[in-house]
Specification:
The protein folds into two domains: 60 residues, no CATH class; 246 residues, Cathepsin B, Chain A. Helices cover 32% and strands 16% of the residues. It is built from nine helices and eleven strands. Strands 2, 5, 6, 8, 9, 10 and 11 form a seven-stranded antiparallel β-sheet that branches. The longest helix is centred in the N-terminal third of the chain and has 26 residues. The N terminus is likely disordered. It comes from Tenebrio molitor. One of its GO terms (biological process) is proteolysis. Belongs to the peptidase C1 family.
Length: 328
């Protein structure tokens, strides 16, 4: 009985929940009036209850991952999806550039983490402009520049937000063609500017201010993973480099803390493929295969900005359904 009580105490310590005031202080939360603060506090308390209930299941071995309070805990899942998605609606001729077919290789490593090679740029924070597609593609291209050209570059997300679609609005949904349109834009445009010449403003500006003399990277083509093929995704990530992906998120994904995220019902929603990010590696943790995914919600999210998502579990959450990568 004593060891059981000690176990309960240790579990409680690990998942100790912050109160409302400490949450506000840690994440620098300021609300415009008392009414808004009360509204946000109720959402926070509701989210906190769900987080604690999930972590009880994790502690009992009924879940492969834990969740925790982060800087988004005063938002609903619907608000997080609305905030994070973004859109890309330019009517381009997708696939007009040559798209090489991936050639299977027999030297695919059993695990890889491209961060170990110094080719993954720091975690970004897209803030309140729904531009996950732009952050994900910029992060992917930056890594490929480092791998194949030996350069560390910081590219402009704002260049894509302003220029891929002249009617872009930070309040649109994630378009199914967002990745294709954006990669095609970089090809047709002969490059993307450096962030130092085209700073991120985290909002819709409306006018495209691209300058060819400030180009930081170009790509020759882009390719797609065969829809749903996790083995091909593994081969590309393991032997070519990071890959841009879209997938479906839910409440638990928003507040992921550690472990391997798996949701057997994540595609049963009207909001499928509601987020874009970058697969920068894969491996196995405690018997669970995972994809190492780089997010764009700052370092408060997940494991310093990263999440491990289930691999080899029937393409969970559609992670291999819409996957693209560049050729330099």
């Amino acid at each position: 009985m004593k060891w059981f009580l000690l176990l309960i105490v240790s579990i409680s310590a690990v998942f100790a929940s912050p109160d409302w005031d400490s949450f506000k202080e840690k994440h620098h939360k300021i609300y415009k009036n008392e009414k808004e603060e009360n509204y946000r506090k109720q959402i926070f308390l509701k989210n906190l209850k769900v987080i604690e209930e999930h972590n009880e299941k994790y502690a009992q071995g009924l879940s492969t991952y834990s969740v925790g309070v982060n800087n988004l805990a005063d938002l609903t899942h619907e608000e997080i999806v609305f905030w994070s998605q973004g859109s890309s609606r330019r009517n381009l001729s997708v696939g007009s550039s040559p798209i090489p077919k991936f050639i299977p290789r027999d030297d695919v490593p059993e695990s890889i983490d491209w961060r170990d090679y110094g080719v993954v740029t720091p975690i970004a924070n897209q803030e309140r402009c729904m531009s996950c597609w732009a952050f994900a593609i910029v992060a992917t291209v930056e890594s490929h520049v480092a791998i194949y050209e030996g350069r560390n570059v910081s590219l402009s997300v704002q260049n894509l937000v302003d220029c891929v679609d002249p009617t872009f609005d930070c309040m649109q949904d994630l378009d199914p063609k967002a990745l294709d349109n954006t990669y095609q834009y970089i090809i047709d445009n002969d490059g993307i500017d450096l962030i130092e010449s085209y700073p991120n403003e985290y909002q819709t500006v409306g006018s495209c201010r691209f300058k060819r003399e400030n180009v930081g990277a170009t790509i020759k083509a882009y390719a797609n993973i065969t829809e749903g093929d996790e083995e091909e995704l593994k081969a590309v990530v393991g032997t070519v480099g990071p890959v841009t992906v879209t997938f479906t998120t839910d409440f638990a994904w928003d507040f992921y803390h550690k472990g391997v995220y798996y949701n057997d019902d994540c595609m049963n929603t009207d909001e499928i493929f509601n987020h874009a990010a970058v697969v920068v590696g894969y491996g196995n943790e405690d018997g669970e295969d995972y994809w190492l995914v780089k997010n764009s919600w700052g370092t408060y999210f997940g494991q310093d900005g990263y999440i491990k998502m289930a691999r080899n579990r029937d393409n969970n959450c559609g992670i291999a359904s819409r996957a693209r990568y560049p050729f330099m």
